[in-house]
Specification:
It contains six helices and 15 strands. The protein has helices at about 120-125, 140-150, 150-165, 195-205, 260-265, 280-290; strands at about 15-20, 30-35, 45-50, 55-60, 65-75, 80-85, 90-100, 105-110, 180-185, 190-195, 210, 225-230, 235-245, 250-260, 300.
Amino acid sequence: MLKSSRAWGEMTTGELELELTDVLGGDLNDTVTIELFDPQGKCAYRNREKLGRSLRLTRINCDAIAFYRVAVTPARYRLRQTFVAIKEGKSILLKLAFPVNPGKVSEIEAPDYNVLPARLREVLEASDMAAHRDGRGRPQQGKRLYGELKMKEKACLLNLYAKTSATVLASGRTCFDYISGLTELRQDRFFARTKGALEEDAGASTLFCRQTGVLHKIPAGYRRTQSFKTRDEHGNLQLTFFRRGDSGDDYVVDADIDEGRGIEHIFEVIRNRVTGRTNPFDVREILIASQKLDPGYTFIFS
């Protein structure tokens, strides 16, 4: 049942139904501040309440038609605002999906190691990262490595697995099929061992366009070769390649997903502040909303 607001007046009126969800289409289940601004910019309605998904605002002054700016500020998600035309005697349905506010996330609920895709487990079991070693200097691998990852590192890994395993090259193999083990993992990218075949396939694929890659860190003992980025409108996968020596098949690939201004463009939201590093939670929302790729984890709020 939709909740109703108080009557606003006795003039010609219309109604507005709000349907508020997360990016997966689930109920928002949050405390939200809802504001309506009339054509003169005056706040005609403001209320803060906890809701699951839907709200009905009744008796909105409109004469025959009136344009209102609707601003919705959830506690856990980013603010969204848009314009809506309220029509006399009509009920207008406005559906809004909200990306998470990364600063409100206290933890993620990620899949257990045993239910991860087999190919991802293989890569984790063959990984060798300097930041994850035991007391004897041996690499942590497999389930132990997965359990040690920090929240944003794990989110980044799952984001990149979702994107690279969905990017199919002309050979019929996915980008992730060419990955043999991680050498470094951050909140915005991973470095992994690979072969020259991935560079060749990416370079020949119409999914990618060439990039300079000059801003990407060069691993010790390697030299930069080529860099490619997918042509997605938002959430582009970039692969930057490094080779050891001038012969042989010892390559490292730096894989990252370009968040860019995807959050602002897809959801018409404004960030509270700009940071220099891509947040993996923003990348998740972009992958789901723009490419229908679900990395498989959810958010836990404090």
